[in-house]
Predict the 3D structure of the following.
Amino acid sequence: MQLLSFALLLPLLLPPVLGVDTKPAKPDVPFSRSWGQHYIWNDCSLGRNDIIQKSIKMNKPVMWILYWETKCDACYHLQNSLKDHNQVQRLSQNFLFVNCNATEIPDDSDFYLDGEYSPKIIFTDVQGKVRPEYYNKNGKAEFKYYYVDAPQLEFSMREAAVGMLGMKAEL
């Protein structure tokens, strides 16, 4: 009987003793690029027009995260801040999320607004029009669309959701 009990417990005891991780690996979320596994990301390489069509179909504005640099400490800090931020996750239901690296950023002048810097977050309405009034009100005037962390972004997301979706916004 003791031998049977030991045989049943062995599979439970052996992995921790051997240092084997028994938790299933988190699936990689397509297009997340380390910006957070809890969000639904859209493929920036589709291009602005296809993303706008999806925005119209889903009746959701778009939040674009643009970054021109491959090694970006500010991007890394913002990525880590976004990964598990509950309020931003909840507000994300109001938007299509897109992150674009330097080779994918739409070559449209309205995306550049106040210059190239990373990361830059802009919002477009359901029709694809850039909405420059939604920016980091607590940031620097010369980098209006730059966010240090998720709490700063949360304020702009809330403002953009209410401004573009009205009573339909999930707050």
Summary: Residues 6-10, 20-27 have pLDDT under 50 and may be disordered. The CA atoms of residues 43 and 133 lie 25 Å apart.
